[in-house]
Structure prediction request, 519 residues.
Amino acid sequence: MAYIKIFDTTLRDGEQSPGVALNTLEKSEIARQLARLGVDVIEAGFPIASEGDFQAVREIARTIDQESEKVIVAGLARAAKGDVERAAQALEDARNPRIHTFIATSPIHMEKKLQLAPEAVIERAVEAVTLAKRFVDDVEFSAEDAGRSDPEFLVRIFQEAIDAGATTINIPDTVGYMMPWEYGDLVATICRRVSGIEKVDVSTHCHDDLRCAVINSLAGVRNGATQVECTVNGIGERAGNASLEEIVMALSTRKDFWQHQTGINTRELYRSSRLVSGLTGMAVPPNKAVVGDNAFAHEAGIHQDGVIKAVETYEIMSAETVGRDAGVLVMGKHSGRRAFRKTLTDLGYTDLDNDGVNVLFRQFKDLCDRKRTVTVEDIRALVDAETTRVAETYVLEAVQFQSGTQMTPVATVRIKTDTGVYEEAGTGDGPVDATYRAIERITKLDMKLESYEIRSVGSGKDALGEVSIRVTSGGSTILGRGLSTDVVEASAKAYIDALNKLAAGLAKTSAPEGKVSTP
Ligand code: KIV
Ligand code: ZN
Prediction:
């Protein structure tokens, strides 16, 4: 069986999604999960784009590579000296570093954006690959907007890049323009015409503007690609990138057709999806394949009847295979700490220290008092919220509210800080608005709520509500998350989480950092 490498770019291209602003802690948490998931390459960021990006790549290179022997950490660099050097610096401590350098090759990009003749573009590509090779063995070269480039020119530039030492060549459909047959033919042409191509990896990188990112990637694999670039939940620039979970499950569910394998532990797919959605604040549509709420739900009576008789009648893959066993735990309020720790270990949370387990255990007990049944998903949501929590400058002590159809909603909030305990009341359009106004009265910070999302963890009237918000303050963007069986409390927690991240200096400046100008 041929091995297909999975190159995850959630932390780079995915992070370029409008409104997404992950701090280093959150990026590291996602990177750890990607390593657990079994991706071959983690593209951790674009080091020259900002100090924050540089630090995140550096941190991930330091920590991930020590934990996982095989995972490669990549940093993106335009085909320019400063970019390549910065990427090399960020990757200094990585066990398996990769510099990923790119330059645009389509007539429109070369003429309008780069204002360079094709020969000069080839020269820059060769210089960048040659320079990158001085720092690392593993160099990827991408021809940006390959989808709208002249195939003859692509054959030339890829040939030169390989001759200069590139170990992976990537064929991006940057603007999501291509149809699957065209993209497949392009990959086939490059594989046929470039000499020495069999010694390097050929990679796909497809965007979803015409909803063809996944199918184009698969067409690439069908025609010789050995690496697929993708993101968890398909997040990314504009309409997004090819979705990792869909590609992996297509290859795995139809192994009979593909005869290919990946290193992905499919049972970690759902957890990865939930984590990325929670930290980026980008909700997963219910009908999204593999990870959407409805992906394994059967509504029509005839389908339900079939599934009861034999699940294969309407299910081509099982929910368990992708880690969606939201089963009820055989644990409850009488369970002890030791049993709780074992459950965490069984769920794959092996790296929690004693303090972390103690905090989670208290939260678990608290949840048992509020909820009839505590599910695996509940535990996962608790752990995910806890592992990205920052030092608490603001501690939410209490929130109380009154609301109804015949009254103005009013909320009272009590917050503890280093300087004392403060209580304020606020009114608003609803209980969440009133709560946020009360918090603002205490903090006196000028924060603007840009987006607010709520989702339920599992189902049932007593389900946990998970709130994700995005707020801006000055030039900074911060995401906050809160979890509770009470949605107003979850909303207050999300706001406090954002405030604490701001206080900890973990906000991201709102300049579109990933979108640096051309070299
Ligand atoms: O879409 C694209 O072309 C990219 C490159 C930087 C690989 O993201
Ligand atoms: Zn891209």
